Queue: 2 jobs
Job 1
Amino acid sequence: MIHLVWAQLFRKKTRTVLTLLSVIIAFLLFGLLQAVQVAFESGADAADARRLLTTARYSIIEPLPMAHARVIERVPGVVGVASADWFGAKYQNESNAFAVFAVDPARYLDMYPEFRVPAAQREAFEATRTGAIAGRRLVERYGWTVGQKLPIASEIHAKTDGSLNWEFDLVGVLDAEDPAVQANTDMVLINVAYFDEARQSGRGKTGWYIVRIADSSQSRAISAEIDRMFANSPDETKTQPEKEFAIGFARQIGDIGALVTRILIAVFFTILLLTGNTMAQAIRERIPELAVLKTVGFSDRVVTLLVLGEALLLLALGAALGMLTAVSVLPALNGKTGGRFPPLFVDAETWLLAALITLALALVVGLPPAIRVGRLRIVDALAGHR
Amino acid sequence: MGPSGSGKTTLLNLIGGLDTPTAGTIAVDGQRIDQLGAGDLARWRAATVGFVFQFYNLLPVLSAQRNVELPLLLTSLSAGERRRRALIALTLVGLADRAGHKPKELSGGQEQRVAIARAIVSDPTLLVCDEPTGDLDRATAHEIMLLLQMLNREHGKTIVMVTHDPKAAEYAQRSMHLDKGTLAPAAATA
């Protein structure tokens, strides 16, 4: 039966190919935009409910005293504290930018058990003051090898000699198994002990704190308690669950989810009209041929399913080609963002969503002509009455 | 035979199970087909009747062989067996060498032969032919009628044919005239 559906679908090749192309473009757009949305939400997806983020109360770019760590540690319910500071890095040229964080190696990696670093490399990172570890994707992108010197320029922090050019020793590679977590490993971690001592200004300050708590249900109370500890001080804080922080951070650019959804609704509505028109036209032209199928014994139900199958085949083919195109162009796009943007990838949920949209479109587009053909009286159709 | 509008095609459609009567009964080979539901009627058509139309009604996107295979798609036969039977049917109508050709690559007579092959491929007992020579020239019409005669005489197919053409009617063992809804016997000519 498949060859019959296939042959009927390509009866008017130009029309089918043009329709197919528009479906491909729609799903290509869907794949790319969903990848953007997933990338923006990856921080939130990878968030741990038992992690809080403490930043300066009014802006994340305001530094906080490193001494805050000892105060936060004493808040009941807090089981660990790590700090991180934004380094603002460029590698070789302006376009090669990625995240570099100055951290306490042991505290930071303890805070993120989802990150994978080989034990020997972790020990080396803890023991080497000029040490750095880098995300696997960055290592592969720039062809780095463990043991090499890593020359990185900072956009913010000068060394005591006034130079913005820093050099670290790459001692390890950071990775993760979960793709959503892996999206957050496009970074380099450097040892804050060396960084703080070697920088010209801002010593004793850090960017934000990551706070591990024992009970996620207490996150609101503990956040409030941390902020209360620093209330009315020169360095007031804002503490919130990691997921909220990640969502809020992504929304600084805009509500990506709503934006993507609105664009895709417009795209798929257009596709609905286009394929609906194509299917209706294609079926209308073939009424006598479909009547012949009924004449030779095809039941109403089988002919209905054949027409529905045609709509499904057209959309499934377009969807698969569009999604595969999206998957194949994303690595090139990732290469061009220079690490300024979270890595884009098509996740399993996006594939599932694409399949559901395909099915829904096929039903909406295919059912009306399919039902009409199913109800068709053979003698009327053979006589040319539609 | 009968004049235009006398109901020849309607009668043929009723006999072939393509249409259902608003009143009365239809029994074909003892079976009351007017009592069958749509699904059962479709199955009955697939098993019992082969159709040949004036304008061939082949699917233009399929090759001759694929067109002939169409009724077999409803069976549980393997693709290979379907292909084999389609080729046998095409051989019977003298078109085995045109199996891979699309309808538009065939002449009118060849298209009608393919249509006949499609009608006989599932080995039905009854062939229903509606003006099978109506779109053909005299010589080709003669060839088609000889083919139908062969199917009747050598393969035992019952053929019910509607025609305007007295020459085509001469091949029938029994002719009937239909006029204003009344079927009147005519003399046997073949």
Job 2
Amino acid sequence: MDARILKEFRSVVGERGVISSAEELHTYECDGLTNFRVMPLAVLLPTSTEQVQGIVRICHRERIPFVSRGSGTGLSGGALPVKNGIVISLARMNKILEVDLPNQRMVVQPGVINLDVTGRIIGDEYFYAPDPSSQSVCSIGGNVAENSGGAHCLKYGFTTTHVLGLEVVLSDGSLVHLGGKTLDMPGYDLLGVFVGSEGTLGIATKAILRIVKKPECIRTLLAAFNSTNEAGAAVSEIIAAGMLPAAIEMMDNLSIQAAEASVHANYPDCGGLLLVELDGPQAEVETLMDQVDEICRKCGSWEIRVAQTDAERAVVWKGRKAAFAAVGRISPNYIVQDGVIPRTALPRIMSEIERLSAQAGLRVANVFHAGDGNLHPLVLYDNRIAGQEKAAEALATRILELCVEAGGSITGEHGVGEEKKQMMSKMFAEPDLETMQRVRCAFDPCQLSNPTKVFPRTRMCGEKPGKYQPHPIEVAGLAERF
Amino acid sequence: MIEARTSSAAGTTLEVPWQELRAIVGEPNLKPATPDDAVLGVQPQMVAFPGTEQELAAALKWADQNGLAVVPRGGGTKLDWGNPPVRADLVLSTARLNRILEHAWADMTASVEAGATVQSFQDTLAQHGQRLAMDPLFSEHATIGGLLSTNDSGTLRLRFGALRDLIIGVTIALSDGTLASSGGKVVKNVAGYDLPKLVTGAMGTLGVITRAVFRLYPLPRTRRTVTLALENAKQANDFVVAVQSSKLAHTGLQIRIGSDGKPDVDVRFAGTETGMDAQCATLRGLSGGTRESGTSMEVWDALQELWRDAPNSVIAKFSVLPSEIGATCEKFRQIGGSFVRWSAVIQATGLGWVRLDAGNAATLESAVRKMRAEVQPFFIQRRPASLTAIDVWGPTSDSFPLMVAVKQQFDPNGTLNPGRFVGGI
């Protein structure tokens, strides 16, 4: 990287805030999606909003693209560096700034770890609801970028439901406040569009979060079925009975085996395992739990256990939350997918995945957020065997296509990032994507903030929307429209 | 046939080829506007009733190309919200786009066209024991598109969130004729930007919503309301915060209070009979012998009741921190004094609505200005004709330039509802 610019970055964040040696930069060349790697020119570690602004102003002047990064646990390559760009790590901005229990709000910096938010308030019996499986390491800033979900979003909603306001550094270095401590600020819901924009609209430097009172009673039921279809039928009956559980998770036999090998959750060895969590006032939960029990038995469950204490619940959840990593115990390599289908399409999609899996000669382990139709098929392969990686990628892509064909989505919580940007064209028509990009042009006309992600093609912001006008660089013969 | 003139370019007279629009929407679906179609005193020329979203998009594009200002209209129940448009040539009605497209009850989602009334949508969903968990104003006549554009909400918001939390997909027509969809049909979906949220509450200034997809909730098995009579606003506020800090799973919690300063607090539970018995007992523990003044469900209509016989009243929506509700009421009391009657319905979320009545317009206006100086945000949803000069939205924030940039991208010619929204957008 240009020594003059590097020097200028150092003047903003200090010597210790700049990483520019090749060995150290390797840590940042990918996020949780490790099959894409790009070396950044430098990594900057600001400790304040002003420093973020200072860095971004330099980037804007020099037209250097930047990628913001939290803990780097993302699974779609959202924090993958871009060519000739820098990475801005928010890891050192990790302070909890304010806790306001009567109003159920907290103000935090983006580098605060998800679980530490709950950790700070659990003594007062509050919690922060979004709970991605990586919650012990992932950051709030990353959660905001990805609109992270988790098992409990079935009842409690996603990150976007729990972020009331943000302080954001835009790609020209200016500072704006979106949303706020009070609801319904007049004007466009720019907060709503920023959350989940995968770092493409700017950098969040402060977040106002909504926190939730811990329910009086939580019960987690484990039910063993012979197949995921039987388990799926039970899910449909639970929903049809008008219940809204806090979570409904499903695992197939292969993922149960993996979880057992890894964390010994003591799950029953079965074809389809259902985990149903109900919470709320005790009398209510107990009445409904009896009904869930009855439904599960009616649908063919041959073993049911109910975790009563926090410790028992923790063991039950440990297996589920460790499922991705656990698959490493039974396969050298794997691809995690994140498709969503209307829940009722589950039996059809499952048998189709089974067929495709047999056809490709690759095992697929299935972990679902069954309540909301979010599938996490894990395609297992061995990259030492020639051709397997390609075959696994093709199978994973085909599974996502199935989800789209069923009226679902290519991603429920992991984000589009680098990995699935070409798939966007399968889910959305050109005018849909073009309209989304208008938002991007309003926020980041120079396309510096995590460019090249999310969309299959970049739209030039100099264009007057709607009416075709050649961009100046097209006129100059420097670019072509495609 | 060229028949009317447009006011769109000040000082000049353009001839509008209305026959082109007639060809798009069909002869019977373009009508001359009557005085009833005026929007806050601004008289449009024509009203078009497109029958499909493609027709609507084509009509909008035609208007944009002809330099006309368009006011989208659903049920017309809240057309007086927002500032008067600086121009209004064509009203684009969604009245014929009123189909409920799909109720995937087993997936708990539904797709609906913008012109369907909220009530007709709810009636359809109720057939499978479900609902859009939202109790907005005037649901008999208000449409889904209008509801979304105005971001209205009622007493269920405390438990089920705002429209932004319930909408999962949207299709909008842009002023250049683009029909764009975003979101989808599944509850969990992070593919692409969340445009359903962007157009919710945008007052029709970015595009015309033609259809929406919602996540649904089951209808409650049974419900129960407890109303408590408290001594003053502070006590009511303390009680509301105590209920919010408890482990009760109430689905409604509101304060009703007026010039006499004696608040009622309403609490609603839903669920199984056993569950509600237990919760009511817990509530009584919290209220410590406070007098219970009723158990009627009708208290949840109080918000809509504010609008009854209110042609000369001001009704404003305000938003404060839940812990500041009591102090806010005290400000209303001080500012109201003995010349302005006020009554308010305030949700435990901190969102409230206050109605002001006074003997003369000057007193009313002065009270509005003082309240807005003390309570922010405070935006006006109803005011008498004498007060149309007041900007209903109040001051803008540091994100305003960004809002202007978004508007510029979506509607560069300022065709849609010009001047209606914050800061003159």
